[in-house]
Each structure stands twice: as structure tokens, then as C-alpha cells.
Amino acid sequence: MPSSPPSLGTENQSPFQVDSRREIIGLLRGLKESKQLISMLINSGSEVFITSILDVDDSTDLVIIDSAPGQLANQRIIEAPRVSFEGLLDKISIQFSSSNLERIIFEDRPALQFAIPTNMIRLQRREYYRINTPLSNPIRAMIPVQLEDRHETLKLALVDISCGGIAILDERKVLDSTIGVIYEHCKMELPTIGLVDVVLQVRNSQDLVLLNGKSNRRLGCQFINMSNSVLASIQRYIMKLERERNAKLTGIR
């Protein structure tokens, strides 16, 4: 049987850590019953696979998940000293980790199993981690709008991003910044992830005066009716930014 997973490195997230076995099993079963896709990350997140929970057996202390596509990928997963998992349940981010995954056959198909984790992180939407996006190579949100007698797709730079929404800069102050206005058929191009489709709702607006005297408008927008697959993509990108930021901080030290 796989050994218990190592404790999550959650010093800054301890208020959101779940240690109750009963609650952990409930969350795992919720992910299984709602057939949610889960990101499975190895090598500090440099490799990501999509899986789902097939079974949670508290009598044997095991979680069974879909195997990754390909023998080599599964070999890397079972050889990894630590495997991290991230999923969404009712738009709540669920994170946990394990070690010593094993290959098995479950209901006549390849699968992986590991011990039920001893702790998890559960982040409510209001607690979604927000991270600043790069200034040197800004991400753009592409928002289609009607301007007088023509259609135009605005390409606006992101300030920050979370699994709940984004902040963007509207230098020309073209967008209707009324709270509650919804912009459909928007897109974001996330490095290493690709184009994702989003619906944005304006939640706040702030006009900024820059040091050079020019003004800018910052809009906080919430994602509306986001699919789980897109949310998983955004979550992976946020993790990528966090790894890059930590690497820079480590390099400075």
C-alpha cells in the first residue's frame, strides 16, 4: 500500500488547511461524484496531466485515479517523489499531494492509486490567490466591443489574475466601466497554455494618475460561467507565474 503523503507546504495557507479525515474523504468523493477533472503535477509543476477520481475507499485508505496517457508518463508519475493535485469543487479550489503512487488495474482499465491524503487546502472563491502578471511581456485580454459605427476587438493588458477574475488597464477608457456590465466572447492568451474563452463582468473601476501625469483606468472583472477546464488552465498558469517568481526570489538570495 502507498505510504501517507508528505505534509503540504502550506505555511501561508494554514487557515485553509483541512485535517479532518472525514472531511477530506467527503471532498474526494465530491470530486469523484461530480466527475471533475483534476490537474496532476510532477517535477515542481513542470509537467501537468489531467486525471479524475475513480474511487475513494476509506476501508483500504486508497484513492484510485485515471492513469495518464502513455507508459512513459505514468512511469514518471510513479517515480516522482511528490505528486500534487488541484481540482475545483463547486468553484472551490481543492489542493493536495501524495507520494509513492502505484499502477493498478481498476475495472479492467489502467489506473493509479495512492493513500488518502492526511491534509488538503480548500480555497473559497473570495480567497483565490491573485498574482501580478509580467510587465515586460504583458498578457492581453481581447474584448469585442461596439464603437460608434464599427466593431473593434480591444487588446488590453492584464494587471493581475486569479481563478476568480482579472484586473485590466483601459488606457483609452473605451470600455463601459459601469458595475455589472458583462462582456461576452472575450479571450485571453496565456503563455504555454494558449487561448482561453472567458466572459467578464465589471466589478470595480478606478481611474489612476500616473507619475508622468497621464491617466489610466483599471477595471476589476469577474469571470462568469467559467468552465472547469478553463479554470484549470488558469490555475496552471497562476502556478507557473508563482514558480517563476519564487525562482527569481531564490536567485536574488
TrEMBL record:
Annotated GO MF terms: cyclic-di-GMP binding
Domain Type III secretion system flagellar brake protein YcgR PilZN: 16-122
Start and end residues of each PilZ domain: 124-239
Subcellular location: Bacterial flagellum basal body
HAMAP family, alphabetized: YcgR (MF_01457)
Full protein name: Flagellar brake protein YcgR
Species of provenance: Undibacterium pigrum
GO CC annotations, alphabetized: bacterial-type flagellum basal body
